[in-house]
Specification:
Chain A: It comes from Nonomuraea fuscirosea. Chain A: This is Protein phosphatase 2C-like protein. Chain A: InterPro entries: PPM-type-like_dom_sf, PPM-type_phosphatase-like_dom. The complex is a heterodimer of chains A (328) and B (208). Chain A has 11 helices and 12 strands. Chain A is of the alpha+beta class and 328 residues long. In chain A, a hairpin with a 5-residue loop joins strand 7 and strand 8. The longest helix of chain A is centred in the N-terminal third of the chain and has 30 residues. The N and C termini of chain A lie far apart (61 Å). By secondary structure, chain B is α/β, with parallel strands linked by helices. Chain B has one domain: von Willebrand factor, type A domain (Rossmann fold, 3-Layer(aba) Sandwich). Chain B is 36% helix and 18% strand. Chain B contains 6 helices and 5 strands. In chain B, helix 1 runs parallel beside helix 6 and helix 2 packs parallel to helix 3. Chain B is globular, with a radius of gyration of 16 Å. The N and C termini of chain B lie close together (12 Å). The chains are: A alpha+beta (328), B alpha/beta (208). The interface between A and B is large, with 54 and 52 residues.
Chain lengths: 328, 208
């Protein structure tokens, strides 16, 4: 087996306080067996989605679940291509030519089915009107997809290529064998603050950003925006991804799995307060474990784990909580 | 702004502050910073430093001069540039309170504001005090057809509106939710709850 995959979902601190459900979703290929958070595979894929959670998007938790389902279907297609010997250029063509349209079409189809099974209830619409006004109610009745609004991100790693795609905010970080972290997908300058493009937008298919690479980094971290928004800037997120690889090098992915929930809880509490869904795709053979295990690195990796558990990790300490400036 | 009204505005802001602080403290994941621009003949920072709401106190402002609203918007625009603003932040809430017609180049000020990404992304609300307010200009500032300027025609209603923007809107703007516009331009970046219905004036209060 080449790849190991880990998935975790953490309810946001502000959602815990408000008593609202976790609106993030996560799914993987292969499926994670019950009672576990990890699995191995020759090829793996993780999708995460962040339901908008606004009063308008009152069914966005379901929208996010449907999003990861349809994205995993596309992932399986790509994995099947790879198994038949297709290279990265085939994957790139498939993504550029049809991925956006396919994902949005399939998502809308499932939303439509879900809505037919369970039409909007009067109390849902009344609550929306109470919170956002009658115009918001009219908009959702006219365009019910808004109620299910969600982002979508997916990372696929096969034996011959890696590919990533994304609609809306959230982050995909790749860490190379030297521990250097970077983001392969081009940033969308329009996504300022909590603004995001969405699967429910009329032009959602055109909003798909994708990237295909023929080479393999040993670690990919994929996350909804609750993680990155807990840091002042991207350096905090990149540092988190690099630290995760150091821990894997020292103690294996199991060590990350053991502590990730606590870390994410702390990060959400001290940072954005938002839900966080995180997937880690890891190729242990590509991680220079010996180098990381040598000398003080062993102690370092434990230290990093301890820092994350206590919420004193530098990046978290540096996190500037959301700012609102009220000018009169 | 005339003297009686400015006194009522000072009172309304002081009255709303405790509720604003309570609202902010309910959400430890958002750091609420407050600053204030005043405008009459010219515009100036009344509270220049972004001040954590828990440390914020209101010092009264006085009425004098004309209504240089455009200059005020340009001042705000300067501070919404990146930097000092950062790409990762919750949207600013801008509340414009006025009782008159701009006496300077309002359009230039608005253009300065809307040229800044955070100016465009700000939650912009406006309160007009009395019948002499230029509501068309306040609507232009808001820039969203579903949100109308709030018309405060007596002291009681002014308190209601100031309290609403300081609590309900603040709460909505500080939640980690994606915008209600779902990426569509021309809509507010956060869900704006419906404003309170204006109540009758308190006995003995002037109607503006």
């Amino acid at each position: 087996m080449t790849w190991q995959v880990l998935v975790k979902k953490q309810r946001g601190a502000s959602h815990v306080r408000a008593g609202s459900e976790n609106q993030d979703a996560i799914a993987s290929t292969p499926d994670i067996p019950p009672g576990s958070s990890m699995e191995w595979g020759l090829s793996v894929a993780v999708s995460v989605a962040d339901g908008h959670g606004s009063p308008t998007s009152f069914r966005s938790a379901l929208g996010a679940r449907l999003a990861v389902e349809v994205s995993q279907e596309l992932s399986k297609e790509l994995i099947a291509f790879a198994a038949k010997g297709a290279d990265w250029s085939t994957a790139k063509r498939l993504l550029e030519e049809k991925a956006g349209r396919q994902l949005v079409r399939q998502w809308r189809k499932r939303v439509k089915e879900a809505l037919a099974d369970n039409p909007f209830q009067e109390h849902e619409l009344n609550l929306l009107e109470e919170r956002s006004g009658s115009a918001a109610r009219a908009r959702v009745v006219d365009d019910p997809y808004q109620a299910y609004g969600s982002t979508l991100l997916t990372a696929v790693a096969t034996e011959t290529f890696m590919t990533f795609w994304q609609i809306g905010d959230g982050d995909i970080v790749v860490v190379d064998a030297q521990g250097r972290a970077g983001k392969p997908l081009q940033a969308d300058a329009r996504l300022l603050g909590n603004a995001t493009t969405s699967l429910c937008s009329a032009d959602a298919a055109q909003e798909l950003r994708s990237y295909v690479a023929g080479t393999h980094a040993p670690l990919v971290l994929i996350s909804t925006d609750g993680l990155a928004n807990s840091y002042a800037d991207d350096s905090g997120l990149l540092s988190f991804a690099s630290d995760v690889m150091k821990i894997i090098a020292a103690d294996g992915l199991e060590a990350v799995s053991d502590h990730l929930s606590e870390w994410l809880q702390t990060i959400s509490e001290r940072g954005s307060g938002d839900d966080i869904a995180v997937g880690i795709l890891c190729r242990p053979a590509g991680i220079p474990a010996a180098a990381h295990r040598a000398g003080s690195h062993q102690a370092d990796s434990h230290q990093i784990g301890a820092q994350h558990q206590t919420g004193t990790h530098r990046a978290v300490d540096d996190a500037e909580r959301g700012r609102i400036e009220e000018d009169a | 702004m005339e003297g009686t009204k400015i006194g009522r505005l000072n009172f309304a802001i002081k009255e709303a502050l405790p509720a604003m602080k309570d609202t902010a403290s309910d959400n430890p994941n958002a750091e609420v910073l407050v600053r204030v621009v005043t405008f009459s003949t010219g515009a100036r920072w009344h509270v220049a430093q972004p001040t954590p709401v828990e440390q914020f106190s209101w010092s009264d402002i006085a009425a004098d001069g004309v209504t240089d609203m455009g200059k005020a918007l340009s001042l705000v625009a300067e501070q919404l540039r990146m930097p000092p603003m950062e790409p990762r932040a919750l949207p600013p809430v801008l509340v414009l309170v006025s009782d008159g017609y701009p006496t300077d180049d309002f359009e230039t000020g608005l253009r300065d504001l809307m040229n800044e990404p955070w100016g465009k992304r700000a939650v912009r609300l406006a309160i007009g005090m009395g019948e002499d307010t230029d509501l068309a200009v306040l609507s232009k500032f808001i820039g969203h057809q579903e949100i109308k300027p709030l018309e405060a025609n007596n002291a009681h209603t002014l308190v209601q509106f100031i309290r609403w923007v300081s609590t309900a809107v603040l709460k909505s703007a500080s939640m980690p939710v994606a915008p209600s516009n779902d990426g569509q331009p021309g809509r507010p970046p956060v869900p704006v709850p419906p404003p309170p219905q204006p109540g009758p004036p308190n006995p003995g209060d002037d109607v503006w």
